[in-house]
# Entry
Amino acid sequence: MGDENTALSTNEVRHVMRRTGFGAPPKDLDKLLKKVGYAPTRGNIAGELLSYKPKLFKPGGRESYTAHNKWVSYLQKPKSPLQEKLVLFWHDHFATQASVVGEMKIMRGQVRLLHEYAKGNFKDFVKEINRDAAMMEMLDTVRNRKAVPNENYSREVQELFTLGVEDFAGNPNYDQNDVSQVARAFTGWDYEYPKGTAYFDTDQHDFAIDFPSRGPKVLFQTHGGFGPAGRDFAVGGEGEPEIDTVTDILFDHTDTDGDNTIARRITRRLLRFFCHDDYANPGPAEIAIIDQIIADSGFATTWDLAALYRTIFVHDVFFETSGVAPYGVATKKAVKWPVDYFISTLRLTGMKLRTRDKRVLGGSYDGAFGHLTQMGQVLLEPPSVFGWNWDTDWISSSTLLARYRFARDIVAARGSGRFRPDKLIDLELTDPGQIVDAVGDSLGIPDQVTAAERQIYIAYLTDNGANPTLDLGDDDVLNTKLHGLYALIMQSPAFQLH
# Structure
């Protein structure tokens, strides 16, 4: 069992960089190691990564296509890759669609909000999301009026953003009455168009005196561990305060095991994101780890996301996928999200996207939007309020081919945006094994290439041993063998899995 004082190997630091950012370029690896010392521990690496000061980025552009491309460009050179990785997680968790929201100004405002709260207090984060204009538009808070309540956001804030439908024992966390009651608390909220500033309209709020037939304002009389009396959400005053009172009650909810429901669910989702897919449907062993991490971080009482992340990053479970994945053996590796694969490939190869369409100038000459559309993930357009499906759902016959085409386009790039392997490895190398190792190192995965894979790559370079040495100074050899080797490794499981 390791802890925050456990020493990390260089390969384990690479693993941390892959999971908390966008790959491990050698220069970034060296920069990180210089900051923490060349005998790093889990704790000082985690502390360094989490020490970032939030940069409140929001993508420009009046249309989602432009904003998408500006966000992609920003991801190529972030000051803190961890912040951007967290923002992607929360963009999926609090999923909104630009095509539904309609106004890009408020979508940009939500991206800024995600950057601001990505490592902050989770309860405060949810309270801000409740008042976020993009979310209010996406899930109909602006159409939730006292005469005809709209329950869309009320349902999703419980089902998706906080409690989840069921607890770990398979028991429901809320019922229809709870959905109706939460909707009452959110009546009357709207925002100024197009600025996105939230405001409360007293005339559109459900006050108990106006609707006595709806009964008392009480939540969770059946669920949540509050007892048959439930919790009165008008106790702090009716009207504007109810939106926050309801949130406070949600965060007090306990499951049928007596544990905090939200703390367990958010920790489970983060473990799935940063570690592996066993946490999609956790068994007793995984639940024990979830509870341990909550206890060690104090998350169920402080709601401090930074403390929760740190506890995950120093735990053994975070390092379970750091080793190589051998052929024919089931592993806990996770498939890189398309945007992660796209950005990490660009960063590791030093490629720059060109033209206003952010094109890769090779192969199909497609732009960032086209490549990511084909891979199945367009920023600002998750498929629904449920976000994207993860892991093996990222891979289909079409999306896998899209990844392969992207790798092909990278190595085929010429002109002002050409692929430059001479910037990545020493072209004086002649030994095929050393060339394979150098390419793996430049792509941040020297430890992930199996011995069997390495022999396959050597056979490719040497034409099955017919040419035991290579002259990378020869343009034909450079443009066929070396470029081809980069494409093969970028298309391999070693590069596409965490």
Observations:
- The chain has a mean pLDDT of 96.
- Residues 372 and 378 are 6 Å apart (CA to CA).
